[in-house]
Amino acid sequence: MKSLADQDFGEGLVEAMRERLPKGVNLAHHLMDLLCLGKESVYRRLRGEVPFTFNEVVFLAKHFNISLDGIMGETVSNGAMFNLQLIATDDEFENYCEIQNYYSNIFGYIAKDPASELTMACNTIPYSLYPAFEYLTRYRLCRWMYHNDKLSLPTTLADVPVPRKLIEVQEKLASSIREINSVSFIWDCNVLKSFIREIEYFRALRMLMDSDLARLKTELMALLDELEKMTIEGHNREGRKVSVYLSNIDFESSYGYAEREGFQICFFRIHLINSFDSQQKQICEAQKSWVRALKRHSTLISQSGEVDRIKFFAEHRAIVNALGTN
Questions:
Q1: Taking a C-beta distance cutoff of 8 angstroms, is the pair 254, 126 a contact?
Q2: Based on the number of CB atoms within 10 Å of its own CB, is 254 exposed (0-12), middle (13-18) or buried (19 or more)?
Q3: Which residues are bridge partners to 260 per DSSP?
Q4: Considering Cα of 34, then 40, then 44, then 47, what sign does the dihedral take?
Q5: Does the first or last residue of the chain, that is N or C, have fewer Cβ atoms within 10 Å of its Cβ?
């Protein structure tokens, strides 16, 4: 006899699959093709008379991009379930790549829907905006290595290894975000100032040579040029809509929310490269409401707010120019 938890889990799985199917697609017929099962076998599973096998559950979760933890959280404990990518390997750079790959797959799945949306509230420069810049990428790696006690700390920025695979997965992540139909960035008013303070700190540790600092300044200026162009035009290089807001309040963290038809996810940035994320409906709706409310405390500067936009970029170019002069 099935337990109530088993029954609720099966119903939650079926409901999650229905939500992710495009309109007009019959779930039973779709499962017959996916699982190579007869019509009656599929309907018995959908009615809860026969449970999905473990292998079927794993396969369907991957195919439909379903969080099994989320279903368990709703059906068993009625609590909030969050996911954190902890990769079981001793290779720290492999961990780094796998975490980036995990999120690029999620955003790539979201981007396939023409109505896809992403909103990010950022208290530092989103790393998805600068993988094309060699020294900014190298500096980000240096910060991560500095906090990772399993790795030998490089003497200077020039000594930081940048594996080819890492560059590829970072570009894949950035590309998947650029393909999302509509992206909104809400920037903390200190979004670049904190980044600059970190650079000054590593310079004080003598991990940044004068040549490193010069390269970082050049790339930061190029990044500001690119961001200003994006805010003026209101779209990215792929022609997808981008809205940029300047917050009038500080953020305690970077977090966001993304959705497509039948799928939603929220996330909270931690450990420089990772995030807690949840696909649980109640958590996602609360996050969605929160990030939308932030816009009421913010000023839109993309294709709008010209005075505020000019002031913001002028101030931040001055901050970059002053880097290393103290």
A1: yes
A2: buried
A3: 263
A4: positive
A5: N
